[in-house]
Amino acid sequence: MTTARSFLSFPPSVRLLLVNQLAGNTGFYLLIPFLADYLLTDLGLSAAVVGTVLGVRNLSQQGLFLVGGSAADRLGARGVIVIGAGVRAAGFALFAVGGSVPIVLLASILTGFAGALFNPAVRAYIARDSEDRAAEAFALFTVFGNVGSALGPVLGTALAAAGFRITALVAAGIFGALTLAQLVLLPARPAPPHATGVFGDFARVFTHRAFWAFAFALMGMFALQSQIYFLFTMQAERAAGSAGAAAVAALFVAETAVILLFQVRITRLFAARPTRGPAMATGMAVMGASFVLPPAAATLIESEAAPRAVRVAPVVLAAIGLAVGVMITQPFVNELIPRFAGTRLTGTYFGAFYLASGIFTVTMTTCGGALVDRGGSPLSWPPALLCAATGLLSAAAVSALHRSGLLPEGGAAATSSPKDTSAPPVPGLGASAAAVPSSDASVGGVAASDASAGEVEVRDVAAEAIGEVRRGTRR
């Protein structure tokens, strides 16, 4: 099935959210890659203040994922999605009209908080409405997000001559249009009843051992995915020398092209299998192994006299390998999170997973940067081995969970059931209020909660922040 046919086969609500992902990423990357340069050059802010502004946006997003997910569970995904898009429109509009540090900080906070609202909500809504085709829906989600991520910087560059304020107004207009479109076209779904308070929901999530085993095993996925903005970008610049900008562009073009051509095919291939664990383990191993190629090639191609294309090619191939690993793994991660959540807490579980992933991504990338500084080159072995070890250890952990039966991973062809992975009872709440019966946990294999925006997926939120800093530094 082609990407177009796959898209048309989904319900209108899912198609609307896929278009929302494309347009939203277009609007986001239309502005964010140029924000650091605007703050430094046009407003004359110090590098420290610029770093604070960018960091606040990231913190207000990843730090509030859990809040956004819980809001989607309790208020209904549609309302949270609409509010999130509207808040981001307001944040981008503030960038257009504000020239002082307080206004810029407020704009940054609003922009990040908006992502914390609609990212978990959109994913949970898609999981609900795509039913037993959730993996394929999330594959399309990745495709549409990557198209938007590629279009955004191109349009931003075209608008650069008009000035950053015009760019910000255009980005705000895109999110304003998305707000209206979802307000009018996105069907409302009644939020499931909750027998406990918000803190009871959080207690259930944070005491769900099987879910946290899954989260800890796979939070390295986003950390490795974000290296396309960080380690691979630095490697391409170092390998290309004076043509660093062109090499980085080739990196992103290759990644986007591979995802557009193969994401749906790869997902359908692995989705036909009865379980998800082996697919996710394979994807993580491929992601980790891809980091070995650039330093290995740099060791063999030591001469600067080697053609530039020969020096850059290993980095581009490694980025393609990383993209393949992400294409294998990510749709199934997004498919399984709602299965852990049951019928009431899909958004909260997504929020918890992305919060943990964001914290790990920032930590690992900081360590990787320190290893680059110590090694004197992004093409040195230590940062590559850190990333490779992360991928391989994650693959081993996922395989162990699969063998233990702790993954709610049965696919369309599954004939056996895993161990009970639903949320555990919370002391004092009673089993009926705290636990989700297995018969109520899914519809067609995917959780039927309305609690519901890739990265971003999807571009990872922490990856976006890293990308902002990298782009701002290069400009």
Automatic annotation (TrEMBL):
Major facilitator superfamily (MFS) profile domain segment(s): 13-406
CC annotations in GO: plasma membrane
Region (Disordered): 410-436
Main location, first listed in the record: membrane
PROSITE patterns from the UniProt entry: MFS (PS50850)
Subcellular location: Cell membrane
Name of protein: MFS transporter
Species of the source: Nocardia bovistercoris
Upper taxonomic lineage: Bacteria, Bacillati, Actinomycetota, Actinomycetes, Mycobacteriales
